Amino acid sequence: MIRCEIRGENIEVTDAIRNHIEEKVGKLERYFTNAPNTHAHVNIKTYSNKKAKVEITIPMKDLTLRAEERHDDLYAAVDLVIDKLERQIRKHKTKINRKFREKNPEQEFFAALEANANGKPEEDVDEGMDIVRSKQFQLKPMDSEEAVLQMNMLGHDFFIFNDRETEGTSIVYKRNDGKYGLIETN
Predict the structure, then answer these.
(1) Who contacts 102 (Cβ-Cβ below 8 Å, separation ≥6)?
(2) CB 142 within 8 A of CB 170
(3) pLDDT per residue over 52-108, tens digit each?
(4) Could you give the CA distance from residue 162 to residue 9 in angstroms, rounded to a whole number?
(5) Cα–Cα distance between 8 and 112 in angstroms, integer?
(6) From the record, what ranges are coiled-coil (predicted)?
(7) Which residues of 8-39 are buried (b: 16+ CB within 10 A; e: fewer)?
């Protein structure tokens, strides 16, 4: 059983909102043969421009599902997030079935899916798993500010570099809110 821990930011979580989320998250249980004591962490946030953001994270033993969506309608955002989570589950199920076909009992982790919500046969979807291009390049020593400038100059969303101070590989990236993030490796 998947239990929901719902937290609202700038919004009161009413019984109607809680029931809608629990009903939609509960439908994900059909994908698992055994999902005991699983918690779905749901964060709801509303903004001054009337947009709502819904984030759902479901940590499990061998898999962490996470999706977020922004929409003018809170209920539509919940539906879109659930759709994303279902795609992640199907993608992972396909990967497990390919990798461990007839060798590993781990494939029993997912229940057999005979039909999707429309009653049509389920297709194994493998979205974007093929590597279509490969690049090699030298990492140059620089600080994070210079890396952000390089990233913006190239028009990319991320940039990998050797941090001059730590001498480790680091990554700067552009966040959805327009600010920048830094990932440092050990």
Answers:
(1) none
(2) no
(3) 999 998 887 767 888 899 999 999 999 999 999 998 888 887 877 776 665 544 445
(4) 38
(5) 35
(6) 75-102
(7) beeeeeeeebeeebeebbeebeebbeebeebe
Question: Residues 89, 91, 95, 97: is their CA dihedral positive or negative?
Answer: positive
pTM above 0.70, yes or no: no
Q: Hey, what are 3's tokens?
A: 């239990």
pLDDT digits (tens, 9 = 90+) for 162-175: 998 888 999 999 99
Cα 185 to the center of its chain, rounded Å: 21
All domains of the chain in start order, with CATH: 2-109 (3.30.160.100), 141-184 (3.30.505.50)
Token duo for residue 43:
């964060």
Backbone torsions φ then ψ of 104, nearest 5 degrees: -130, 135
- 1 close to 38: Cβ distance less than 8 angstroms: yes
